[in-house]
Design a protein that fits this description.
The chain is α+β, with helices and mostly antiparallel strands and 392 residues long. Helices cover 22% and strands 33% of the residues.
Length: 392
């Protein structure tokens, strides 16, 4: 796989991770990146440059790189990846359409929201193994084009965990939880990285039985969440850091050797490593337009005017009206599973309707009234409303 693409995806993920609010969450920069790359090839300026910068790509080659990336992921033993493209049956397409978007992925949008939702929900469920069953878009008659990516991951641990109920009596995690633990002889599945921002970071690699692993990272309690996430991403693929076996040198029982790592004793014939953590399941939906500058969507999500932002796709003026991601991750005793559906919805520019002045009157405080007999001008009844009298 192109090393520059890997760097670009990791960079996008790291920048996004730094924006996340505290709390349980999960994102997939890998789900977003191919769509940004495809759109950068298809977009006009200034959106073309913004998208290319966000994705870290040369827009002339980005679409081909996106398709190549999805193909490489889909060849993995544990991963499935797919791209989807649906075009409204009445949308005019440019002659250059098939050079900027992979037309072999094209499906049809009928303009009937119930039909289109069913078709795209079916695609989402099929390509995530039913982990995500809905496309994260609002389906409206004016939806002109949908571009989506699907990722799903199911792996089995090379060494499974034991599961039990553990009760924590105090602190933020007080309560009873499903707890996982296991013992491993590979001390070097643990490494301690000295990150310039996060400080010491303990990273544990939990190996899958095929070609995907899960890395767990923990720093000192006062380290902000964005810094820990960024440091863990920076440690991916790094050969730096101190291996677990090196931590034993000169250490004594009870010593704190690194964040969340202490030296204990066991009855095993050789040194080993224990890992304990709660099982977890996190599911989140992200509105990418809330961070449109981060994703290079600022220009292409504005009113397109008469020209539009994607003349290479259609002569009709198009703009990105929706950009969302549904993503989940589950860590349990025998394995790990995750899925992400990322979707961009484009709409045609609405017709510009004439604007005229309007006088708007709202009687939302006490007011008077009278009834006039028109032929004579006599007031029949006159009154005052201090409070509304009809119940809701």
């Amino acid at each position: 796989m192109d090393a520059n693409v890997v760097t670009a995806v990791n960079s996008l993920t790291s920048r996004w991770a730094r924006t996340l609010a505290p709390g349980n969450t999960v994102i997939s920069g890998l789900g977003v990146w191919p769509l940004l790359a495809l759109l950068s090839t298809a977009a006009d300026e200034p959106g073309r440059s913004e998208l290319a910068e966000a994705a870290g790509v040369d827009p002339t080659a980005a679409a081909a790189q996106a398709v190549e990336l999805i193909g490489a992921l889909d060849s993995s033993a544990d991963l499935h990846a797919a791209l989807g493209l649906w075009v409204h049956q009445q949308l005019k397409l440019s002659e250059s359409f098939d050079s900027v978007l992979p037309t072999e992925l094209t499906g049809i949008l009928t303009g009937d929201p119930s039909v289109d939702k069913l078709n795209l929900d079916t695609w989402a469920a099929e390509h995530t193994g039913d982990l995500i069953r809905e496309m994260p878009l609002e389906f409206t008659p004016d939806l002109a084009l949908v571009l989506a990516s699907a990722l799903s991951l199911r792996l089995t641990w090379a060494r499974p965990f034991r599961e039990q109920i553990k009760r924590i009596h105090e602190g933020d995690w007080a309560g009873a939880w499903h707890w996982l633990d296991r013992t491993d002889r590979d001390l070097d599945s643990l490494r301690v990285h000295d990150d310039p921002v996060a400080g010491p970071l303990t990273v544990i690699t939990v190996a899958g039985d095929a070609d995907v692993d899960v890395l767990l990272g923990i720093a000192s309690p006062e380290t902000p969440q964005p810094d820990v996430l960024a440091a863990l991403l920076a440690a991916v693929g790094s050969e730096g850091g101190r291996p677990g076996s090196a931590l034993l040198v000169g250490a004594e029982r009870g010593d704190q050797l690194a964040p969340a790592v202490t030296l204990a004793q066991s009855t095993a014939a050789v040194p080993d490593l224990t890992l304990a953590l709660p099982s977890f399941s996190v599911s989140v939906e992200h509105d990418l337009l809330a961070l449109r500058s981060l994703f290079g969507l600022a220009a292409v999500s504005t009113d397109p005017g008469e020209q539009g932002h994607f003349s290479a796709i259609s002569p009709d003026p198009l703009a990105v009206g929706q950009a969302k991601q549904s993503v989940l991750a589950r860590f349990y005793a025998t394995g790990f599973e995750a899925a992400a559906i990322t979707a961009f919805g484009m709409t045609r520019a609405a017709a510009v309707l004439p604007q005229s002045p309007r006088l708007a009157v709202t009687l939302d405080r006490p007011f008077a009234f009278t009834a006039i007999h028109r032929p004579t001008g006599l007031p029949v009844v006159t009154g005052w409303i201090q409070t509304p009298t009809e119940p809701e």
